[in-house]
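Figure 2 data, in text form.
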Amino acid sequence: MAINTINGAYTPPIRGGYPERAGASNVASLPGKPVNEVDQVQLTPGSQSLRQLETERQEPPVDETKVAALRKAIADGGYRVDSGRLAAKMSDFEAKLFP
């Protein structure tokens, strides 16, 4: 696949001749002509789940007291990561994305 470095458009490779010109098979690309076919997009279940999570909460709730305590612990060097709890949370999150 050749990619035009100027605008990123796809240009099919030329094999033993010239590229196809706009003709009867390419009327959908001509201005002022009706579109014969419509492309359809199918979202994967994972992307649908992600979209649902995005639309459920636009603004996550923020516990300012907890944020301040975490910032202080990080600045003081006293914050420790519980790797087991972190792994469980990541696993739960992924299970929600990909049921």
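Caption note: The mean pLDDT is 77.
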